[in-house]
Design goal:
Layout lengths: L5 E6 L2 H12 L2 E7 L5 E7 L6 E7 L15 E5 L2 H11 L2 E5 L4 E5 L5 E6 L3
Parallel strand pairs: 1-4, 5-8
Antiparallel strand pairs: 2-3, 3-4, 6-7, 7-8
Amino acid sequence: MTTFNHFNFNVLDLEKSLKFYKDSLNLEPVREKVAEDGSFKLVYLGDGSSDFTLELTWLRDRTEPYNLGECEFHLAFKTDEYDRLHQLHKDQGVICFENEKMGIYFILDPDGYWIEIVPDRH
């Protein structure tokens, strides 16, 4: 059997990203790994419900934003608090695209990654 474990985003400013994911999606660090020489740090964020984690990778020597190309990929979250979360993200000014007909929207993280928010439609 094969199961999902984690997904990775490389980030330029780890503290800014940690704050974004905490404030916008209530994700908390569940484990981390730091290179012996301090050249990188991995922080795994969890949702408190599933075993799936988002790995944020910070590289000490990286100074330029990552080139995400046309950003034709995204990470999706399902929520049973769609209206509350939508209002929160609207207030935070992080909604970058909304498809009202489909009932979904996307938020933009500090590094330009798109995150889809999908209502739990049971």
